Amino acid sequence: MDYRIAAPLDREMIKTLRAGDYVWISGTIYTARDAAHKRMQETLDDGQKLPLDWKDNIIYYMGPSPAREGRVIGSAGPTTASRMDLYAPKLLDMGLGGMIGKGKRSPEVLDAIVRNGAVYFAAVGGAGALLSRQIKQAEVVAYEDLGTEAIRRLEVEDFPVIVVIDSQGNNLYEMISQDNTV
Amino acid sequence: MIREIEVTEVTQNIREMCIQTNYFLSEDMACAMKEAAEKEQGALGKKILGQLEENLEIAKTDQIPICQDTGMAVIFLEIGQDVHFTGGDLQEAVEEGVRQGYIEGYLRKSVVGDPLLRENTKDNTPAILHTSIVPGNQVNIIVAPKGFGSENMSRIVMLKPAQGVEGVKQVILDTVREAGPNACPPLVVGVGIGGTFEKAALLAKQALTRPVGEKAQAPHIRSLEEEMLEKINQLGIGPGGLGGNTTALAVHINTYATHIAGLPTAVNLCCHVNRHVKRTL
Predict the structure, then answer these.
(1) Which of B124, B146, B168 lies at the terminal end of a domain, its last residue?
(2) Distances (CA, A) of B56 to A95, B163, B231, B265
(3) Is B48 within 8 Å of A124 when comparing Cβ atoms?
């Protein structure tokens, strides 16, 4: 099925999404990758508050190339999600609604997705130029010193993704590899 | 005859090559992608390849990197033994070329200065520089920025000689299977067989810079490349890991002499943004 959905996410709506669905996202999403996740974890370990409330929000695992003058952002495709697996369950338990990345996730992340009724999307890896056109605004909102790894708020329009892990725990990559072993 | 080359010429060329290779996919790769899009059977796979084609066009027209991971700059310099570099330090000239290219070309700075302390160097230096001395008075420069989605899924295995070619095939297939969607298929698979631990890895990296479509010269290696490409494309991973028969565009295997006790095998995966550009000074 194809869907157009809004971000931040409507938790009831995302329960209807299924692995393999093609989805266009419009609204506000946030970027964070390795260094930002590490810093958020350290912040939580110190008993401090995170700079943002992740409730119902989407984190896009992405570090853009620099924007030319007059442009919103540079190339902006997904990075490998599994590097954030160590941190994701905690954020999901804190209310994070969805993640956009590419590649496989750990069993712990899958469990946390099911436990919280969340969703993991993949964007097309290596299509950073194409995806940049769907980003209408970009602004650094935390950890500016991390450069490309800072947390950015993005306004996106019809940002194309595919549901890889749905709220029931169906996993598109597993479905594809099982198809090929029979 | 000794030929003098100003190191600023090296800087200038590397600067341009870093930018060029990140905006424009080389002709061999672009053709391979086009061909794959025509042949792909999977519905989602075909759609993804269509988007990747469009992505290449947008990169060209918008002057924006094909992929936001503009890589760590891997540079090969084949230096003729009759060349004398003047006007400065060659290594520094290379770094300066990378620095200028990544800053002026709006390329992402993806390098941390210390692997454990992890502070970004903010100009994408240092580069990974491989030099070799060859006959003649020319200098070949190859710039091949390498993204880490695929680099992270690469591996090296010290096989036993008894494991032979079957062991090599297993390592290649296991590496691709385990990488699955993570390495951004369709891939170019660079394989190094033989040498020592570090030589095998270097052979695999060099294999990625070979123009796609060019086959190995030795008949037994050429047929191994063909067999592996077919087997990899039967894995069904497909473009973006979303299913299909285009998991790899090419398998390039480089070999070298090795020790009686060993069969080092390295597999260096590269995503569909396999950047490599060559110039001769």
Answers:
(1) B146
(2) 37, 41, 28, 33
(3) yes
